[in-house]
Amino acid sequence: MLLRIRPLISLLLLSLTTRSQGLLFKSTDSLPSQRTSLRVFDTNPPVFHDNFYIEFDLSLWDNANLGYVLDVAADKDNSYSLSTNGAGTLNFNIDHQSNKLVIPLQPALLGKKAWFKIRIDFDLKADNVAIDINNTVYVASHLGFKPDMPANVVFGKNQLYTEVPNMAIKNVAIGDDSKEYFFPLNEPGGTIVHDSTGTARGTVEHPVWLN
After folding, report:
1. CB burial class (10 A; 0-12, 13-18, 19+) of residue 44?
2. S-S: 71 plus which of 5, 81, 103, 135, CB 3.0-4.6 Å?
């Protein structure tokens, strides 16, 4: 009996050890057609009322490449993005209109495999956003939010911009006070992205899964 169990245990251990530890994005160093794009909800994104948040771990591997960390399309006319200018800052923008926040990053947060946590709270009723980076909070208001917003969240290359920084992400959570969708981004490979329940929800183009 032990001889039959051991191969099964070995296969299980192999599957656990070969799962990824995050998603690395092909950046502006690659051709635009080869850059990475993660659409968190491929179809039927949840619609949030009054408020919701996006939380994730980010690693900026260098300061050489500017680009877009994520973009949230509120509707056909309005979208909001978090970008980096390649000079050690993050910017929160109303796309095609204005930059609302410039967030300096400490040098210790930058560099290959140096992870830090970002949480973006959208208060749709108060029309403001609060961005928490390692327990320091930055707030912007007068953003033109509507009471309801679909979670059309895209990391990396998106419908508006092809510039992508040299970055990696993991542990993405999107939700509100009543529900949360969690994506560990520990896929063994492929282009389908599953939440923590194993449900296939998103897709990624040109992924590099980290070991």
Report:
1. exposed
2. 81
pTM reported for the whole predicted model:
0.88
Q: What is the mean pLDDT of the chain?
A: 88
pLDDT in tens, 94-105: 988 999 999 998
CATH of domain 20-209: 2.60.120.200
Q: What is the mean pLDDT of residues 144-169?
A: 94
pLDDT tens, position by position, 68-93 = 999 999 887 789 999 998 778 899 99
The string of DSSP codes covering 19-42 is S-SSEEEP-TTS-GGGS-EEES-S
Strand 192-194 and strand 200-205: the pairing is antiparallel
Radius of gyration, alpha carbons of the chain? 18
**Amino acid of residue 168:** A
**Domain range list for the chain:** 20-209
Three-class secondary structure of residue 82 per DSSP = strand
Cβ atoms of 135 and 120 within 8 Å: the answer is: no
